[in-house]
Amino acid sequence: MHKELAKNLQALVRNKQAWEALEDYLQELAQMTHRELVEGTSIQELHQAQGKASLLETLLKLSETVEDGRNQYDEEDEEKSMREIDELYHGIVDEERE
Questions:
Q1: Distance between CA atoms of residues 73 and 81, nearest Å
Q2: Which pTM does this prediction carry?
Q3: How far apart are CA 12 and CA 87, in angstroms?
Q4: Which of 14, 15, 27, 77 yields a CA-CA distance of 20 to 30 A from 61?
């Protein structure tokens, strides 16, 4: 994983509230995708559902992937990234409330 990308994503996965909310959403999507795999009637539907399932599995493992590479940058950069993710998260939450 690219150093800059890992640094930014680490801020997300370490924000417990934001990560848990995202993880819950991804798990819900994974359940819906599983139903699509079971109920799919065409090859195209099954291929699309397989692609979704694969992507969702990768995203659900993001926390582990990022944590594995966490020592690739210094703590100062991490704190800056965490602030940026926090601002982004709170901006999204505030927009949803309006």
A1: 11
A2: 0.64
A3: 11
A4: 77
